[in-house]
Amino acid sequence: MILVFLGKAGTGKGTQAQLLAKETGILQASMGDILREEIAKKSALGKQIEAVVSSGKLIPDELSAQMLDVWLDEKDMSKGVVFDGFPRTIEQADMLDELLEKRNLKVDLVLNFAVPENALVKRLSERRTCKICKRVYNISTNPSKKAGVCDIDAGELLQRNDDTEEAIKARFKIYNQQINPIIEKYKGKLIEVDSQPPIAEVARQVEKILEKKK
User: Fold this and answer.
1) Which CATH number describes the domain made up of 2-116+172-213?
2) Which residue ranges make up each domain of the chain?
3) Cα 137 to chain center, whole Å?
4) Residues with Cβ within 8 Å of residue 95, at least 6 apart in sequence
5) What angle in degrees, to the nearest 10, is found between the helix axes of 165-185 and 90-101?
6) 35-39 long-range contacts, Cβ below 8 Å, gap at least 24?
7) pTM confidence score
8) What is the pLDDT of residues 83-113, one digit of tens each?
């Protein structure tokens, strides 16, 4: 099954994709992880991406698609893929269709994780990211075992500079403008998930939706 998980920052879509991958063996296609993996390989593509990132610019859609194409070629897709936070624009959605069509695949189901914006502002202000591996925690809903320290590599957990209320609301405004065409594109395949409850309860919602789809 080919899945797309959509949702604003802080809705927990990445956590749910991670849990689903762990439970089912489905591939988690997280663009952040794929980007870091390609850079670490020191491939020609990785060096090109690193140069863009180092300059502080956004990675062009064409380069993101190329990176994803390489990643998919290298992975066993027999159990399916969940695209976590991608596509973010209608152009990326069309590119994803092309990448899947090359492999005789298509998007089967889209889950849109929804939380009221005022609740998301609180969530994001409590978000902490590992300085080393970039794993994301939340001091209220998904804390590390030891305060301020990553469970994976003991890296320091930091708060992003742009996790202020004003910056978060500005990001949401842009997100809303970009996501509406994507939601329209996936009409008929899209199911909204209430992502306000605890992580385990949201995971049960996802499990029920997937069982029904199967």
Assistant:
1) 3.40.50.300
2) 2-116+172-213
3) 14
4) 61, 62, 64, 65, 87
5) 50
6) 35/59, 35/67, 36/134, 37/71, 38/67, 38/70, 38/71
7) 0.81
8) 997 898 999 999 999 999 999 999 999 999 9
